[in-house]
Amino acid sequence: MSNDKIIDKPECNCGTVAAYGHPEAAYLTYLALYALQHRGQESAGIVSSDGEKMFQHIGRGVVADVFSDQQKFNRLKGHIAIGHNRYSTTGRTSFLNAQPLVVNMRGGSLAISHNGNFTNSGTIRKELVKQGTIFQTTTDTEVMVHLIARSQKKEMHSRIIEALQQIRGAYSMTLMMKDRIYAMRDPDGVRPLCIGKRDGAYFVVSETCALDLIRAAYVRDVRPGELIEISSKGLKKYRFADATTVHKCIFEFIYFSRPDSRIFNENVDKVRRKLGKNLALESPADADIVISVPDSSNTAAVGFSRRSDLKFELGLIRNHYIGRSFINPQQRMRDFAVRVKFNAVRGILNGRRVVVVEDSIVRGTTMKQLVKLIRQAGAKEVHVRVSSPPIISPCYYGMDFPSKGELIASKKTVKEICEFLDCDSLAYLSIEKLLESVSPDNGGYCTACFTGDYPIAIEEKIGKYQHE
Ligand code: 5GP
Ligand code: MG
After folding, report:
1. Which of 17, 26, 141, 192 would disulfide-bridge 114, Cβ 3.0–4.6 Å?
2. Residue 14: CB within 6 Å of ligand 1?
3. Is the domain of 285 the same as that of 394?
4. How far is CA 281 from the centre of its chain?
5. Active site includes 418?
């Protein structure tokens, strides 16, 4: 696909970190970014502050590559820091879009790290451009920065709140001034964000697995519609919107978050196992073994195996050392990319009737190749079980799904997909069982990718030029 075609892909699901009050703030931020690497591999960055001055290092690639130079790392001084992992998109990977974004404005320098996607940034941007504003990047984050800069309110938190009240969409953001940090989550609570503490220092991270690594204790989630300020005066909270109805992204449980994280007050591992168990209940298969597509469906496959009494085996092996450049092939190369990533274990699959549990089918490319691979390894039958419902609609809230036309389930029935994949049977988890797998006391979820029912209004324009 030509990169020029996608003018302005939505901001993507990323990893965000902030640290306040620790002498090794940048180092702990770096570790936290390591733990959140799965949330983005396109670029990584840290901006730190010693209370007077800011220091930054941002680069393309994974955390290990970006921060490989010890000397450069040592320049990230101070007791305050924020960090960001940007998710790879199939579209524009302009370096200008790398984060944290640092700007100077009335009131001092500001660095911002964003996870999510604004759904009305086109309208705001157009209005700002009309008034003479110059944009350097195509990101939502810059829209946010301009809104803060233009606010005539006196205090920083009031300026941020004024900006947030003009924005719609999904976001979990951290922001740093030279002497404090802020953290905020959209009123629908779409993306996770939580607060931790260690040695009197505060940390804000996308997922709890990052707190575990830096040995910070989990304090609580940043609440939907809440702005947190952490400074020498301690933690202050401000509510900038009523969050009476929340719409947390259920796909965070299905695929995106790490199973060792606790998000939205539930363990990802537990929910994912339940998805697998419910899938086995709804759509059992007459087979000999269950295998997963590592790593993303491991936990659901264990759940399926438990409930169905079929043995869980490691029938596919994943190569973990494939760089970004390979993952982004031309369409005709995509098939080959799957084979580089996975190989089948003949000794396990030969002569067996196999259930393959997959967490989701997006285009169908991965599964089609895997079925072929599993058959070539001698499997007698291949039964595909998907621990989420068919994805029929794009995500406008930060998940990196392709356009509607590319989503296989938007065009084909389950039977047709089964034929396309060339498997012996195919079943998806129902929406009812999906929702039953998360705690009912835990508020609402966004299931738009499975229903086409978007809880947060979307600009028409996004649908037009970004997704068709
Ligand atoms: P497909 O080949 O059907 O397009 O993609 C399905 C595979 O992509 C599954 O193995 C699933 O774990 C993974 N997947 C699901 N959602 C996402 C996403 O948002 N981004 C990426 N990179 N992979 C995804
Ligand atoms: Mg996968």
Report:
1. 141
2. no
3. yes
4. 29
5. no
Could you tell me the distance, in angstroms and rounded to a whole number, from the CA of residue 362 to the centre of ligand 1?
6
DSSP letter for 310, please: P
Q: Tokens for 112, please give them.
A: 């911002």
Residues 70, 197, single domain; the answer is yes
Is 61 or 332 the better-scoring residue by pLDDT? 61
Examine the domain organization and report whether 35 and 148 are in the same domain: yes
Determine the structural domain holding residue 386 and report its residue range. Answer: 271-466
What ligand is nearest to the CA atom of residue 256?
1
Indicate if 201 and 333 belong to the same structural domain. Answer: no
Tens-digit pLDDT profile for residues 220-247 = 999 999 999 999 999 999 999 998 899 9
> Does residue 399's CB lie within 6 angstroms of at least one atom of ligand 1?
yes
Tell me which of 90, 254, 255 to substitute to probe ligand 1's pocket, judged by most ligand atoms within 8 Å of the beta carbon.
Answer: 255
Q: How far apart are CA 88 and CA 382, in angstroms?
A: 31
Q: Going by C-beta distance under 8 Å and a sequence separation of 6 or more, which residues neighbour residue 362?
A: 391, 401, 402, 406, 407, 408
* Contact indicator for 25, 51 with CB cutoff of 8 Å: no
Residue 428: CB within 6 Å of ligand 1?
no
Q: How far is CA 376 from the centre of its chain?
A: 34
